[in-house]
Amino acid sequence: MTEIGPAWRRFKKSKTAIVGLSLSLLVVLSSLLGPIVISNDPLAHSMSSRLEPPSSQHPFGTDGYGRDVFSRVIHGGRVSLAVGFGSIGIGLVIGTLYGMLAAMAGRHIEVILMRAIDVLMTFPTLIMGLVVMVILGRGIFNLVLAIGLTWTPRFARIAYGCTKSLASADFIIATKAIGVGRSRVIIRHILPNISGTIVVMATMWLAAAIRIESSLSFLGLGVSPPTPTWGNILFEAMRYLDRPWLAVWPGLAILITTIAFNMVGDGIRDMTDPRLR
Amino acid sequence: MVTYIIRRALLSIPTVVVVLTLVFLVMRVAPGDPAIAALGQYASQATLEAFRERMGLNAPLWKQYVEYISSFSRGDLGRSMSSGEPISRIVVAVLPHTLILVVTATIIGIIVGVPLGIITAVKRNRALDNAVRVCSLAGVSIPTFYLGILLLLFFSVSIGVFPTRGAGSLGDPVDYANHLVLPSLALGLIKIAYVTRLTRSAMLETMSADYMRTARSKGISEQVVLCKHALKNVLVQLLTVMGMLLVLSIGGSVMIEIVFSRPGLGRVLVNAANQRDYTGIQSVMGVYAVLVIAGNLLIDLACMFVDPRITYD
Predict the structure, then answer these.
(1) pLDDT in tens, B95-136
(2) Which end of chain A is less enclosed by CB atoms within 10 A, N or C?
(3) pTM confidence score
(4) B281 contacts in A (CB within 8 Å)?
(5) Which domains are assigned to chain A?
């Protein structure tokens, strides 16, 4: 793993990375603290104030049930971010374990395990998530699991590649030679050496996971209403295309978040890529 | 060479079978009863039993599997569990719309993305490069459906220049093209972003290669060096990542078809998913897999023609 000090100095030099990091913090903080500060209830119906344009009381207007869109976007952020972080976490843990085990499993099992991964990668993440959601049924936890599983093959491939290139390193051969068991080699010697690369990939895929969450919820296969997420707010907005503010703001929330996370991801990648130093 | 192409095509058949097997396993071994999923919680025991019998769900799993693979190879995709319609007929009706959308978007992506990537690599770190980099970062970050909605809101709802829904009829090219503009632009703009980023980094890598320095030191003009020496190598590199772009645009086409209410494979899949129609999902997944594998085969063959370093024997 790279040392934190010099790496941070390189990260700081990139304007994009710093802007991305500040934006990401802003997004995370506003969805963590926003619901405490905002007084409007995201679920409160009000038939007298349906489909109002943006005003000082409702900065993003109100939706078809008279609910405050601003409050829904802020609350929705909590759900969308939680699903994004949670699913990448699941994909990271399962995928890394799978990849490391496959790399150490021995010739035949290794080939079978990795061919399975190749096959899974022929499907776009969105379509895989969609199928898993049909099998599991709707709900936030199932959504986290479904998106997590679609990211598992990608993490597995990275972990496999890194482990493979380490397996022939002298220090691994040496530990094996003194009789250290396979699981101990994986946990104590391989894992610490590949965790840097895996965390970098996780940052880069976080934005994509949030995008898949919003897409699935938009298709009606993710989080069910009335719980707001950026995706299902947009889905409901599609019924009122003559009131564009309903769709523009929640979409912008997704866009700002994914751009911010991608900027951080790019920054970290450039920081760790020795060719760009 | 013809034998090579035939052999490569035959070799992709096992891959298709493996994918179909996996799809079958996931859909059938997974928890959940397809009959209850299709008919609902409150269907009577007798109706459920009749449905299982009609759909062949009572047969042993291996028999269902053999039946699924053999009918798939004959082009028979079974009947939809929700509507009872033959799925092959639905797929044949919508497939052209999806293919036209994906191909048009790819062409837009390449025609705009490749030149942009080359220009920004040559003029690295100038104002244009920075502007394009910001735009392409936004392009790879934006969800396809949000870009679709924005285009729809602006061009169809506010200005009213393009139709909001449907694909038009294939018999009327002008009307069809009119319906195609916004969907293919939404998908195409995102492809431009990806192609630009890929071309730029491939071009930067190529420009620092030894043979480029050699070409320059021979006194060849910069233009010839870029067009003849760099471009060719960059194009080969781009071709190899086209498979990834294909998978990406198939995923994107699902969302675009929903936003623009266009008939297509994606719409069929999402409808099947919302009605928990297991045979429908299984068949459409199979068709997607065949498309991706066929696309990758074409790309491999194209690589073989373009890159003299790859030999076919």
Answers:
(1) 999 999 999 999 999 999 999 998 898 888 788 888 888 888
(2) C
(3) 0.86
(4) 131, 134
(5) 4-30+63-276 (1.10.3720.10)
